[in-house]
Amino acid sequence: MQKIIFAAHCLLNTAAKVVLYEKEDMAAEETLRRRFLSKAVNCGVQLVQLPCPEFTLYGACRWGHVSNQFDNPFFRNHCRELLAPYLLQMKEYLAHPERFRLLGVVGVDGSPSCGVDYTSAGNWYGSFSGRKDLEQTLKGARLATGYGIFMDELCKMLREEGLAQRITVTSLFAPEPEKCLSLLEE
Fold first, then answer.
1. Looking at residue 141, what is its pLDDT?
2. How far apart are CA 155 and CA 140, in angstroms?
3. What is the b/e burial string over 109-142, where b = at least 16 CB atoms within 10 angstroms of the residue's CB?
4. Alpha-carbon dihedral angle through residues 32, 11, 72, 87, given to the nearest 10 degrees
5. Rg of the chain over CA atoms, in angstroms?
6. How many other CB atoms are there within 10 angstroms of residue 32's CB atom?
7. CB pairs under 8 A, 24+ apart, for 121-129?
8. Which of 39, 70, 131, 137 has the CA that lies 20 to 30 A from 97?
9. Helix (H) or strand (E) holding 3
10. What is the pLDDT of residue 133?
11. Separation between Cα atoms, residue 161 and residue 59, nearest integer Å
């Protein structure tokens, strides 16, 4: 039986991530990412890479965003359009339990798109130039509980299709490594 995990795009391709400057946080996430992927490969798990909605809209030179900025009907629609063929793949794998075991979906906590338990949040908008409150605005970004917009739409789509109880959605988060690693222990 083949085991399958659907993974956030940047778990397999960190080149798609926004440039980060918190070296310690980056190192901790990278260590867990490598540990998770190594264990998945060693366990024979097949990995399906989900698309990155931020990269497909804004490319490689984008600024960091917060989920509040993506919480609009245009970005949510973009996420749904990207997710639709992957949802069909999930349904097809689930339709053949004698051949496949869908272990779940792994997002990346802290992401405004792919966070599952934690997302980035803040009151960001407008132009950077000429702002007297820019530093205060940037400092207002925080880790908040809740889904990033891409994972929120995925979970809504899973509920709409009656699949939410059959597909585990979890995340990679360095302070809580057991969340993603536990998928591989089933």
1. 77
2. 27
3. bbbbbbbbbbbbbbebeeeeeeeeeeeeeeeebe
4. -120
5. 17
6. 19
7. 121/66, 121/67, 121/68, 121/146, 122/66, 122/68, 123/68, 124/65, 124/66, 124/68, 124/69, 125/69
8. 39
9. strand 2-7
10. 76
11. 31
DSSP per-residue string spanning 19-46? P---HHHHHHHHHHHHHHHHHHHHTT-E
> Which amino acid is present at 102?
L
Q: Which residues of the chain are modeled with pLDDT < 70?
A: 19-21, 125-128, 134, 138, 140, 186
The size of the chain, in residues, is 186
The pair of structure tokens assigned to 175 is: 């302070």
Whose tokens are 């778990």? That residue is 11
Entry pTM: 0.90
Q: Which two tokens stand for residue 160?
A: 């709409």
Contact between residue 155 and residue 164 where contact means Cβ atoms under 8 Å apart: yes
Q: How far apart are CA 105 and CA 175, in angstroms?
A: 19
Q: Which two structure tokens, joined as six digits, stand for 23? A: 């070296």
Two tokens at 72?
Answer: 């609009």
2 has which bridge partners? Answer: 100
